Amino acid sequence: MAKKLVIDPGHGGSDSGAVNGSYREKDFTLQIALKVRDYLAKNHEVSILMTRTTDTTVSLTQRTDYANANQADYFASIHINAGGGTGWESYIYNGTVSQFTIDAQNRIHSTVMGVIGPKYGVRDRGKKRANFHVLRESDMPAILMENLFIDTTQDLNLLRNATFIKDLADAIGLGIAKALSLPKKATGLYKVIAGSFQSLENAQDRESFLKKNRIGQSQVRQ
Ligand SMILES: [Zn+2]
C-alpha cells in the first residue's frame, strides 16, 4: 500500500489569506500545492489527498478531519507569510511530537533550503514550532511551510516567477519523498521489466503483446 499524503493549500474561497494589492496568499498556496502534487505523482509511489484543488472555502477543522478520516501518513500544509520579513520557514507542533515529525521537518527543510537558498538567495528563517490548528489537530505527523512574504517586494517577485515556483514545489516534493522514504516510480524499460507476473501465462501474454506492438524495440532505443 502506497503511503497517504495530504497536501493542504492554505486558505481559499472566501478566505484569501494575506493580501498584497491583487496578490492573494490563497492563489500562491494553491499553485505551489498543485505543483508539489504533480511532482510527487510523476516521480514517486504515493497516494495523494488534497484538501482543495480549486479556489474553495475549506475550514481548518474540515482539513484535519479529512486527513484523520483518511488515516493519512503525513500532512503538509502550504502557506505564504506576511508581516514584512523575508525568507522561508517550516513549523511543526510545539506540543509533544514524534521523532518522525522532527526528522521529517529536518529533511524537508534542508532539501528546500538546499535549492532555494543557493539558487535564489532566499533567507533561511529556521525550523520552528507553533500551536497551529493543522499541526495540533492532525493525528499524523505534520508540517506547515511559510513560503516567503507576500508583502515584501523581493519575495513577491520570486512568488510571481514561474521558474521559482516550479523549483520550490519540486524541492518540497523531493523533501517529502525523502522524509517519507517514498519509492521512486518505475519508468520506461524498467517499468516493463519490473511488471510483476502473477503466472507464467501472464508473462507469456505480456511477451506476445510486447512483440506485437514492437514495444521491446522502441524501449531499447530510449
Ligand atoms: Zn496562511
Summarize the helices and strands and which ones pair or pack.
Blueprint: E1 4-9, E2 19-20, E3 23-24, H1 25-43, E4 47-50, H2 60-69, E5 74-81, E6 88-93, H3 99-120, E7 124-130, H4 133-137, E8 142-149, H5 153-159, H6 162-179, H7 188-194, H8 200-212, H9 215-221
Parallel strand pairs: 1-4, 1-5, 5-8, 6-7
Antiparallel strand pairs: 2-3, 6-8
The chain binds zinc ion.
Residues 10-11, 17, 25, 79 line the site of zinc ion.
Description of the molecule:
The longest helix has 22 residues, at 99-120. The chain has 2 domains: 4-179, Zn-dependent exopeptidases (Aminopeptidase); 188-221, no CATH class. It has helices at 25-43, 60-69, 99-120, 133-137, 153-159, 162-179, 188-194, 200-212, 215-221; strands at 4-9, 19-20, 23-24, 47-50, 74-81, 88-93, 124-130, 142-149. The chain contains 9 helices and 8 strands. The chain is of the alpha/beta class. Residues 216-222 have low confidence and may be disordered. The strands form 2 sheets. Strands 4-1-5-8-6-7 form a 6-stranded mixed β-sheet. Strands 2-3 form a two-stranded antiparallel sheet. A hairpin with a 2-residue loop joins strand 2 and strand 3. Zinc ion is lined by residues 10-11, 17, 25, 79.
